[in-house]
Amino acid sequence: MEGSKTDVLIIGAGPVGLFAVFELGLLDMTCHLVDILDRPGGQCAELYPEKPIYDIPGWPVITAQGLVDQLMQQIAPFKPVFSFGRMVTSLERIEHEGFRVGLDDGQTVNARVVVIAAGGGSFQPKRPPIPGIEAFEGKSVLYSIKRMEALRGHDLVIVGGGDSALDWTLNLQPVARRVTLVHRRPEFRAAPDSVNRMRALWESGDIDFRIGQVTKLDGEDGQLSTVTIREADGETRVACTRLLPFFGLTMKLGPVADWGLSLHEDRIPVDTEKFQTSTSGIFAIGDINTYPGKLKLILSGFHEAALMAQAAKRIVSPGERIVFQYTTSSTSLHKKLGVP
Ligand code: FAD
């Protein structure tokens, strides 16, 4: 697959990776962000979107999703490129050119500078405790859905009681041959409207809903044919060609650990002048880094992004004089921001 080019490749579109686009953009650097999640916001969007945050400067209170929405608006003038639902799997230096970054779909991006804003690491789906599930993973057991059309005509068993399980039940019902939703309790941890819509589909007979647990998978060569569901009154075998478990996500350091960078207790040590790692041209900002006095706060990550951008500029445009400017008074910054 043809590789693309950018000044700065940012690994992680959490709040800190997003704000880095702003600071880099003010200094005329283009950014490409990659995140394993299907949307921006990192922990804010994935773990606590509706919780209020009280320590963002200038915002006495803002929800975590509200902050992400504001950041997306703030960086829009710089037109960053996003690759969502993609994990950065490899990182190699190319002499005199910077770095080649490999994604899990085989795509490569060449960048002069790499910024690791990977937070606590990559979000990875929790695996349900079903014996032998590994043999079906990626073929007929799917933890994320890239294309709904790929599931057309399938017998789907969706497992879980949160928003993901409910949303996919509603979205895939018109596409699948049959959808069976399995949850161990009659109560759900999902938006009430989604729960009501799911119950309506169940009552009209358009989906099946079973209170229980999937205990056994049957099939050959990674292709499922049936699953066994244990319910209060016994076991049932259900036709299933695709199993979609939504048991939440955990954070693991993941591929970051394999890039030859110095690590300290699963964090990347950086200096506090440039927030550069042990490799020149690779920076680490936000929750993923460590230094004396580090606080895992969003506002600390924002400060780190500002200083990192100054150092990144010296690599992307060597010899160019960097003029310190305020956004309030600089007409050239106003132009970049589209201020009339
Ligand atoms: P993250 O938000 O973790 O984002 C990192 C992103 O990188 C993720 O989206 C991940 O998918 C992606 N990623 C990682 N590895 C890869 C890879 N190899 N390829 C592709 N993508 C990758 N902070 C405050 O300041 N105030 C608060 O009140 C506050 N409350 C909190 C409440 C809760 C419940 C939690 C869990 C955290 C709270 N925090 C708070 C902490 C705050 O959310 C973090 O400090 C912040 O999210 C760190 O931002 P980040 O961009 O560094 O990383």
Automatic annotation (TrEMBL):
Record's catalysed reaction(s): 2 reduced [2Fe-2S]-[ferredoxin] + NADP(+) + H(+) = 2 oxidized [2Fe-2S]-[ferredoxin] + NADPH
SUPFAM superfamilies: FAD/NAD(P)-binding domain
UniProt keyword Thylakoid, yes or no: no
InterPro entries xrefs: FAD/NAD-bd_sf, FAD/NAD-binding_dom, Fd--NADP_Rdtase_type_2, Ferredoxin-NADP_redctase_2
Cofactor binding summary note: Binds 1 FAD per subunit.
Residues holding FAD: D35, Q43, Y48, V88, F123, D287, T328
Top-tier EC class: oxidoreductase
Cofactor(s) required, per the database record: FAD
Residues covered by the FAD/NAD(P)-binding domain: 7-292
Any one Gene Ontology molecular-function term assigned to this protein's record: NADP binding
Keyword field: FAD, Flavoprotein, NADP, Oxidoreductase
Top-level taxon of origin: Bacteria
EC number(s) per entry: 1.18.1.2
Gene3D superfamilies from the UniProt entry: FAD/NAD(P)-binding domain (3.50.50.60)
Stated family: Belongs to the ferredoxin--NADP reductase type 2 family.
Assembly description: Homodimer.
HAMAP family: FENR2
Protein name: Ferredoxin--NADP reductase
